[in-house]
Write a structure and sequence with these properties.
The chain starts with a helix and ends with a helix. The protein contains 9 helices and 8 strands. The chain is an alpha/beta fold.
Length: 227
């Protein structure tokens, strides 16, 4: 049995994985792995809870917060009005530049995305708002600083964003954290192993949120859609 999978399996027997506060675990990793005064890209900033930690806990020098939903951008602007190091950009990050339909879900903003209408259960599709959103490659955006850390939470668009950020990643070598789940990435035409394969192409190793690195693709595939 793959080592990382065995560790996660033991954890799942001891705890109900649905009861684990994954967001808090991610925030603990910020404090453990991201240096104080870092330059950060927040892809999928939502209402700014993670941006708040970057500013308050990490004393980030710069935070580029990307969020394509206008209402959330207005909230971000109010929340960080007194934080000049936070730049809010009303756009979605992907592997190309242009304008696309973005599906916003007011009943759960965090489940909004470029192609997520296919993902929603039929009973909630009527609640989805279709927006026209600017889409950009991170490589084509003048950030004005080298990137130390990239946080990605964009409901299935992770691979496309990482492809569009290739030069930024190879030049700055930032720490990266990302969601990656079956229902979301398949909507974008990707497979379970694509994240691992892309990371290896960029010279990165993939680990779970507990810090366990995956030894190979087989071990990653044993874990990716289960934990």
């Amino acid at each position: 049995m793959p080592q990382a999978f065995e560790m996660l399996l033991k954890m799942s027997r001891k705890y109900d994985c649905d009861d684990i506060d994954w967001e808090e675990l991610l925030r603990l990793n910020y404090r453990r792995l991201v240096r104080e005064g870092a330059n950060i890209v927040d892809a999928g900033a939502n209402e700014g809870d993670h941006t708040e930690h970057f500013v308050r806990d990490l004393k980030a020098a710069n935070v580029a917060a990307f969020e394509p939903i206008p209402e959330l951008c207005r909230r971000l602007a109010r929340r960080f009005a007194d934080e000049p190091q936070v730049t809010i950009r009303e756009l979605a990050l992907s592997d190309h530049n242009g304008v696309e339909t973005f599906f916003a879900f007011p009943e759960g903003w965090g489940e909004s995305g470029l192609r997520m209408k296919e993902w929603y259960p039929q009973k909630v599709k009527e609640s989805v708002i279709e927006l026209s959103a600017e889409v950009r490659r991170l490589d084509d955006i003048a950030l004005g600083f080298p990137v130390d850390y990239i946080k990605i939470d964009i409901e299935g668009g992770e691979i496309d964003m990482l492809v569009g950020a290739r030069d930024t990643i190879l030049q700055s070598r930032p720490l990266i954290s990302t969601e990656y789940g079956d229902r979301a990435y398949r909507v974008f035409g990707h497979t379970a192993g694509r994240l691992y394969e892309l990371a290896r192409q960029y010279g990165y190793r993939v680990a779970d949120l507990f810090g366990n690195p995956f030894a190979d693709l087989e071990e990653f595939l044993a874990c990716v859609d289960r934990f």
